[in-house]
Predict the 3D structure of the following.
Amino acid sequence: MVKRYERLKEIQRLDPERDFLEIYRLTVTYEFPWDVTRALELALYRTYAVPSIGRLLAETRELTERSQKRYDDTALLLDAVVEHGFDSEEGRTAVRRINRMHGSYDISNDDMRYVLCTFVVTPKRWLDLYGWRRLSGHELRAFAAYYRTLGARMGIQDLPRTYEEFERTLDSYEEQHFGWDEGARSVSDATLALMGSWYPRRLAPAVRTATLALLDDSLLRAFRYERPGPLARGLARGALRLRSRAVRLMPPRTTARYARQNPEIKGYPDGYEVGRLGTFPTPGVRGCPVPHNRSSDVPAE
């Protein structure tokens, strides 16, 4: 039987700069599959609060009209790289699909880099609060190397190198750019509704309340949500901390858990092809397919 901290010892024997994919895979599919899934959902959620990102997502209508498909495709494309590696056929196909979709829109390098930073920083902060253990420095170095590699293959410029640089870039960008946008709020509401749809209908209001209780004040202000009361926050956060204590006492996983196995992925009951995931440019339309007259540098008031 694998002991609770045995896999961490295995991770510590690997080189975070050379073996970053293996470390990342062990961490997110064995040690923290549920937590990292929740953290990456929150990471993407944070990006809506940057008006240039949230407004564009509203204009595409992917998250407001096809919320489940957009959720599934995003998770499965990112998961293909984790499971199969950057240089596998599946991994290369997934990155090409991601790049093809992003290339259809006018997205600034700064916004792309910020989104990448959320994938590095948000899981660490989630696990600090709700994980059965915290990430080691070894794992943080591997996370930074993993997303540096993904960012480079996405053509993102001026990438941070260390976890600390990813964190500073994220905090600075949010301080400068978080702000209100009506379209971003519609995307946020659609995402909350999607999360509620994964549970029995009578539980949807409680799921919404619990989700809002987990958001920090900067996000609540950006979306103009009423701040949940101390009872709601205490119950939601307390439940997650109780879960972490229970997980710590359980036997560790002996098989990997990938995003494609999660019950939240609902759109492909008969399977899927990585190359057919995501959106495809409208035939005959060149350049960005959504109209907009906006500055990506100035948050809406």
